[in-house]
Amino acid sequence: MVYDIKGKNALVTGGASGIGLWFVKELLKSGANKVFVLYLHTENAGDISKQLNIEYGRECTCFQKVDVSNATQLENAFKTCINWCEQLDIVINNAGVMNDGKWEMEIAININAVVRGTKLAFQYMGKDKGGKGGIVVNLSSILGLQPLAGCPIYVATKHALIGMDRSWGTPFHYNRTGIKVLTMCPGVTDTPLISEAHGLQGDDILGRECQRELDAMPTQSPAHVAQSMMAMITKGETGSVWICEGGQPIYEVEIPDRLTLKRKN
Ligand SMILES: NC(=O)c1ccc[n+]([C@@H]2O[C@H](COP(=O)([O-])OP(=O)(O)OC[C@H]3O[C@@H](n4cnc5c(N)ncnc54)[C@H](O)[C@@H]3O)[C@@H](O)[C@H]2O)c1
After folding, report:
1. Would residue 124 show up in a list of annotated catalytic residues for this protein?
2. If one looks up domain 9-246 in CATH, what number appears?
3. How far apart are CA 121 and CA 177, in angstroms?
4. Regions in the chain scoring below 50 on pLDDT
5. Are 158 and 216 in contact (CB under 8 A)?
């Protein structure tokens, strides 16, 4: 069944810059009622919020400075969001880093915070908790589906999300909660995460290899990823995993059953 974004309220983490900011804009363009934006590093977040509120209507966004890897801050942000918009319908766990040089922090942001954000979404939106159901989208990557020699731990974090989302995305959970869980796997996208990657992998050899591997892949704009995100939210079934790469139309991935995976020597 087609999901209508019009009139829905959303929460986006890491939404004041990069791909996340484009998600916020596309949600509003698609008729979302209110978007609650969590951000950390963006200095001009206040100006961005003002501009969006002028463009899309009074108080359609609320920006809050939150470190998603801080459990208390993230939980409080969900509470503030519910007070602000009353009902939450869409959660996009977008904040992420590609920084194998600080891998504990990377895991805390890319996995722990996404686990927490997903569980909070279930708590506030689940029909079994008195909510109305909704959509959770977690940002994995094409690197959730393939190795990259230059940043193995980032790759691990993005693989982890696919396993979690496909499990939360089973009918068992959907039938209880009314929440669809979708995974978006963008290819290389033109943001600081990519342009700064070579210096953040912990040593020069890894940094150079990471850069070489990323340079060999097709790139795309964050605007394209955001438009594709709207298409995915509209038509995606729970537990589905989608690739958006090289500016091409988004497509659903079929992950083979493990029993068909035996190598034929
Ligand atoms: N750019 C790509 O090529 C690409 C490809 C596949 C997946 N992704 C994923 O897309 C998501 C967005 O990446 P991007 O390319 O826009 O990167 P980006 O670096 O431009 O933006 C990341 C955002 O996350 C925020 N963030 C980081 N740590 C945070 C924290 N602790 N608390 C709150 N916010 C925090 C940053 O402030 C920023 O707004 C990430 O999860 C990334 O892994 C990106």
Report:
1. no
2. 3.40.50.720
3. 10
4. none
5. no
